[in-house]
Amino acid sequence: MNFMEILRTAVFALRGNWLRSALTSLGVIIGIAAVIVMVSVGQGTQAEIDKLVSGLGSNRLDISGGGGFGGGGARVAAGSRYSLNEGDAEAIRDQIPEVQYVAASLRGGTQIVYAESNWSTQWEGVQPDFFAINDWEIADGNGFEAHDYSGGKSVLLGETVRRELFGDEDAVGQTVRLGRVPFTVGGVLKAKGQGGFGQDQDDIVLVPLETARRRLMGAANVPPGGVRQIALGVTRAEDVDYVQGEVEALLRQRHRIQPGDEDDFSVRNIAEVVATRTQTTRLMSLLLGAVATISLVVGGIGIMNIMLVSVTERIREIGLRMAVGAGPSDIRRQFLAEAMLISLIGGVIGIALGVVGALLVGRFGSLPVALNGQVVALAAGFSIATGLFFGYYPARKASQLDPIEALRQQ
């Protein structure tokens, strides 16, 4: 039997029980559609998270005050007290040449008011290198001048704050109040959107560090020169681990921490955070793919089950074919062609439904979707593999029947 004869025979056999064949294909359809949707969502989510965490920077270190033990022997959380100061930042800048940028900062929350509008936001007192470390750009107006860092009353607004206070009105040059303190809007920051940890990066007001200490800290018990955090930008990403060790050693020396005692600061390596998040998204993508594959395996088992039933029902037909000259390979190819045809028909319909489903999820759902030709090719490959794998055993069983015993079947 040539290929066309085998195909024609397979089509004729499936048409004889078209409803059963359609229901069998349904398992493959659902499996293939699930593979496309799940893998597309997994790849889209991974790409989105990679994009978000890449903004954190792979050559950055964040040093937070606190940690160790406070009064009464209770452990103090990192960032909960002012154990860092501007002198620490200057020492790091002067003594560790691999560090390119250093910026100490203070932060807090307040109500910002303009005319009849107000908005609850976060402010951050910063030093000049803060903008390079965090990749902030000015969209409108001007950044801080050198004289602003000695106590000027200019502020920079994030896009969210600008929109909530001013709407379509020009913000630059206007006077706003942070708490009870008036400031002049010197510029508006370029929008950055959502951050790597889900926060709105544009809901921020930047203030020169010295201004924040004098005018916004209020009654907070901040020691002279105290800061909440120090951010570092390392010149080369491969030096980050080395710089982290040097920073820890320098701060322990400056803070007179004895060997074996707890640090009163913590150093966070952003590269490690990025690597952890990336690994997590990869695992999630694999999990989604595994769930979709299980659906496809269930569909393949349905094909095997129906083909075994078909062999049992058509034993006499198989005997007649063998009696008129059909060999075991002809019988095997015939039943394998039937299994492949069910799988391919289900695969084509499943691919169409999967592509439509992925597009609908991307358009109306909250999940990011990355649909590409590789995903469709993967689904098509799964469809072919399912037909071959689950159709081979029934086809082999049919080809091994004894013609004489088969002809005796009623």
From TrEMBL:
Keywords: Cell membrane, Membrane, Transmembrane, Transmembrane helix. InterPro entries: ABC3_permease_C, MacB_PCD, Macrolide_Exporter_MacB. The keyword Transferase does not apply. Belongs to the ABC-4 integral membrane protein family. Residues 21-249 form the MacB-like periplasmic core domain. Its main location: membrane. It is found in: Cell membrane. Pfam families: FtsX, MacB_PCD. The chain crosses the membrane at residues 21-41, 286-311, 339-361, 373-393. Residues 290-403 form the ABC3 transporter permease C-terminal domain. This is ABC transporter permease. The keyword Signal does not apply. It is a multi-pass membrane protein. It comes from Lysobacter yangpyeongensis.
